[in-house]
Automatic annotation (TrEMBL), chain B:
One of its GO terms (molecular function) is ATP hydrolysis activity. Residues 17-257, 350-584 form the ABC transporter domain. It comes from the Bacteria. The keyword Transmembrane helix does not apply. One of its GO terms (biological process) is peptide transport. This is ABC transporter ATP-binding protein. One of its GO terms (cellular component) is plasma membrane.
Length: 329, 596
């Protein structure tokens, strides 16, 4: 286990180095000129040139890269063109909202997957569930997010459809409002945060639930015709017990891999969903950064997402080895 | 043990298991087929009844029906009646079935490797069986260090250990009926003998009746009081084990008995086999299912379905219209012509010199895995035209040696020299798995013809010839593997191997999953092919009797080392190593029946 963790940390560093190289390369390839962007569109060429010199943009590439790396090591991701603040400060501000939304949608997605797969297995000939899954699965996320927002907020007004919280000036130690509400002894804040969270999290959870659910369902079908399941049934266990004790755990490996893939897609979907629901997180920040060609901000977010992705995949591999003790990390 | 007369007198009280006119229909891809067709039998407490038949005869389905565990995907339809300890089970609610499985019926599966949950410790799996101390039961099955075994995960245990765990798991529920579905087929002979002893002792102790499902009459004879012979879902003969083994009344039973081979069989001529195998024809409402293969079939056999009637030859019953003529079946067994001597040349087809190989095992540490030697300096030469059998138990390194010979695995030390530049052909254990499901037989056989269009007349002619060579009707060229029987698939695999005759044919346990008559047929076919095509052969097996029949020399492998290489008869008559002696001693003999 220790060896595995050491290996995955080394792996993460290698991946980060490669990412930094790509990010750095992008900076010099993309036609957007940071010097021009900082100096303003109407600045005379001399000013732009001065800014360029000040930023060190006319040094050789290798020196620029070295500088870039050392800044990266100090969590310095540069200055946002749009907000005029250090990108790392911006990320620190917006990350908790995205973490809260992302974790909630992963949890909700996994719950959806479990319910769908188990129901589909216990109720034979459940063509309805299958049809529903195909229907929901084929709806693009920008549409399902809009539909959820339209019906549950605009039309019936059951749930809030914009923002994170109805309480102003609430701030807690973790930045995750649901948890902070409980920590600070204000359960009404947690409830309100949950109500705000529900619609965007559901929009993000649907594709995760469908993909993981289908993978789990397929794996369950295979596992439940294994000889050891017959052995379990032969002991006179009820079908539910057989499914929960012998089926699920053995079927877990493939759907967990699928979850890992879905988390990567989740990062992209966050941009759309946070935009639709006005969720003040990294996704919305990135969309705005795109609109104003804010390259440092976009690249900073990319590095954060990269780290999160490595973290999630390490966790998933640990989860797989816990489900199947034969997988020796 | 239960006497015959006692059974008659006890017919007043209900036997604890009474199966009446049981029929089971399974639907595969929408096509219903009747796998069990009107079966009636009783079992008494403590009785061991063997259920014997070829693969596809429905014997496994009977065992599953008695547990209510027929696969749901096949939409099973069960008719007739099963009364177990006074409870009617046909049409019973799933709650009744569960309570029956908890208290009354348990099973030991065929494949101990797959029958234990790989992600649960033995202790947790055994805890789901009610009754007794787990360590106590494990040690009763002869497992040393039961505490360690209980806390282990299944993949850390050997096949024999797992089968003992499964037996303990079944017996600790103190069932009245134990269904043992080929419990020893997947195990080595020495382990097999121990498991049979264990079953005998445990059931005697607890008065558990065993329904012993097997294709191996030798194994059945060593354990059972009574035998039911099953063909195409019907019982064709039943009676006391000894009676049937000595004086079988049904032509099929006679054929099965004659197809047995052991260490005394005549190896100079082809083995006696059952008449040509078919896909078992079921759904024959008004005919004897065996009529198409029966050597004494007459016109009425295809018009009247024979019912079980008192057998003329013994105290049991047989379903044959012409029981009186069955003695002619034996008379027809004229000895076949002896094999011609194989043309063995002095040149080596394959020369292995000091070959060694290790595999990583055990826990991965920070520095990688430890490695365990599977082969230590093995030297073996196979001459052109010679057949060498490699005998050993699982884990001895047989398959690794074969893969090295085939060029599929590189040895870590030593040299491999082949006479032919072309790689040898390999025949694997499972013929069905060795064929691609979506290509026709003809396409797969023809694939080995290089530079020829697969649809050309020439290719089709070559494929047809290869199929004829292995005894397959060329009409089957355009069928898919799923539409053929296991025996036909094995022939197709062989046809693929010999369409371009290799100088060396490697066979990896080609008969170990087959029932007796199919195994005998395959041994005959291989013996014939290697002589006709002048092939050298490496025949890997754990079955000493089969090795003795097919090979010119036997090499015994133990723990990666050759302990003995000698002439087959010499090895059996005067084994030089203690290991070979233990292999011979463990062969299941037909103790119940007389040797013919």
């Amino acid at each position: 286990m220790l060896a595995y963790l050491a290996k995955s940390i080394v792996g993460a560093v290698v991946v980060l180095l490669m990412m930094s190289l790509i990010v750095f390369g992008l900076q010099s390839v993309i036609p957007a000129d940071p010097a021009r962007a900082i100096a303003g569109p109407n600045a005379p060429p001399e000013t732009v040139e001065a800014v360029r010199k000040e930023l060190g943009l006319d040094d050789p590439a290798i020196i620029q890269y070295g500088r870039f790396l050392s800044r990266l090591a100090h969590a310095d991701l540069g200055t946002s063109v749009r907000t005029r603040r250090p990108v790392s400060d911006d990320i620190r501000q917006y990350l908790p909202a995205t973490l809260e939304l992302g974790l909630a949608s992963i949890a909700l997605g996994v719950a959806l997957a479990l319910v769908m797969a188990v129901l589909q297995f216990l109720i034979p000939g459940s063509g309805g569930i299958r049809l529903l899954m195909v229907g929901v699965g084929s709806t693009p996320i920008f549409l399902s997010a809009l539909l959820l927002s339209y019906f549950f907020w605009f039309r019936f007004d059951w749930l809030p459809g914009a923002g994170r919280l109805g309480y102003r000036d609430f701030a807690g130690p973790t930045g995750l409002n649901v948890i902070d509400g409980i920590l600070l002894g204000r359960p009404e804040v947690s409830v309100d945060a949950l109500r705000h969270l529900l619609l965007p999290a559901l929009a993000l959870a649907l594709p995760i639930g469908i993909a993981v659910g289908r993978s789990l369902n397929g794996a369950l079908h295979e596992v439940m015709s294994e000889p050891y399941v017959r052995t379990a049934r032969g002991k006179g266990l009820s079908e539910t017990k057989v499914l929960l004790r012998h089926g699920l755990r053995n079927a877990a490996t493939a759907p967990l891999s699928m979850l890992g893939l879905q988390v990567r897609l989740l990062f992209g979907n966050l941009l759309i969903v946070e935009r639709v629901f006005g969720w003040p997180g990294l996704g919305l920040y990135t969309v705005q950064a795109f609109a104003s060609a804010d390259l440092p901000a976009v690249l900073g977010v990319a590095i954060v997402f990269g780290i999160l992705y490595i973290l999630v995949n390490t966790l998933i591999e640990i989860g797989q080895s816990m489900a199947d003790p034969r997988i020796n990390l | 043990m239960v006497k015959h007369s006692h059974r008659m007198s006890s017919s007043v009280t209900e036997p604890f298991l009474a199966v009446r006119d049981l029929t089971v229909t399974l639907s595969r891809e929408g096509r219903p087929s009747r796998v069990i067709d009107g079966i009636t039998f009783d079992m008494l407490p403590g009785e061991v009844v063997a259920l014997v038949g070829e693969s596809g005869s429905g014997k496994t389905s009977i065992g599953l029906t008695l547990q209510g565990l027929l696969p749901r995907d096949y939409q099973p339809l069960v008719g007739g009646s099963i009364r177990l300890a006074g409870i009617e089970l046909v049409g019973a609610a799933s709650r009744t079935w569960r309570s029956v499985r908890r208290r009354l019926v348990r099973a030991i599966p065929q494949d101990p490797m797959g029958a234990l949950n790989p992600t649960m410790t033995i202790r947790h799996q055994m805890r789901e069986s009610n009754g007794g101390s787990i360590e106590g039961w494990l040690s009763r099955t002869g497992l040393p260090d039961p505490g360690r075994i209980a806390d282990a995960l299944p993949h850390r245990l050997s096949g024999g250990q797992r089968q003992r765990v499964l037996i303990a798991m079944a017996m600790m529920a103190r069932p009245k009926l134990l269904i043992a579905d080929e419990p020893t087929t997947a195990l080595d002979v020495t382990v097999q003998a121990q498991i049979l002893d264990l079953l005998r002792a445990l059931t005697r102790e607890q008065q558990t009746a065993i329904l012993f499902v097997t294709h191996d009459l030798n194994v059945a004879a060593s354990l059972a009081d009574r035998v039911l012979i099953l063909y195409a879902g019907r019982i064709v003969e039943m009676g006391r084990m000894q009676d049937v083994a000595r004086n079988a009344a049904h032509p099929y039973s006679i054929g099965l008995l004659a197809a047995r081979y052991d260490l005394d069989s005549d190896r100079r001529r082809p083995l006696i086999t059952l008449p040509f195998e078919h896909v078992p024809p079921v759904n024959l409402a008004s005919a004897c299912a065996y009529a198409q293969r029966c050597p004494i079939a007459q016109l009425d056999c295809t018009a009247i379905r024979p019912s079980l009637a008192a057998a003329s030859a013994h105290g049991g019953a047989a379903a044959c219209l012409h029981q009186g003529q069955t003695r002619f079946v034996s008379a027809q067994r004229v000895d076949a012509k002896p094999w011609p001597a194989p043309a063995i040349q002095a040149t080596a087809a394959l020369r292995l010199h000091n070959v060694s190989k290790t595999y990583p095992t055990g826990n991965r540490s920070f520095w990688g895995r430890q490695s365990q030697p599977v082969l230590r300096s093995v030297s073996l030469t196979i001459k052109l035209g010679e057949c060498v059998a490699l005998v050993g138990e699982s884990g001895a390194g047989k398959s690794t040696l074969l893969r090295i010979a085939a060029g599929l695995v590189m040895p870590e030390g030593g040299t491999v020299t082949r006479f032919d530049k072309a790689l040898p052909q390999v025949v694997f254990q499972d013929p069905v798995a060795a064929l691609t499901p979506w290509l026709t037989i003809g396409e797969q056989i023809g694939e080995r013809l290089r530079g020829v269009s697969r649809d050309s007349d020439y290719a089709r002619r070559r494929v047809g010839e290869a199929m004829k060579l292995v005894g397959l009707d060329p009409v089957l060229m355009d069928t898919l593997p799923a539409e053929m029987s296991v025996g036909q698939c094995q022939r197709a695999v062989l046809a693929r191997a010999v369409i371009v005759p290799p100088r060396l044919l490697l066979c990896d346990e080609p008969i170990s999953a087959m029932d007796v008559s199919l195994a005998a047929t395959t041994l005959n076919l291989l013996s014939d092919l290697r002589r006709r095509l002048d092939m050298a052969m490496l025949f890997v097996t754990h079955d000493l009797a089969a090795a003795r029949i097919i090979a010119d020399r036997i090499a015994v492998l133990k723990d990666g080392e050759l302990v003995e290489v000698a002439d087959p008869d010499a090895i059996v008559a005067a084994p030089q190593s203690a290991y070979t002696r233990s292999l011979i001693a463990a062969m299941p003999g037909p103790q119940g029946g007389g040797r013919r």
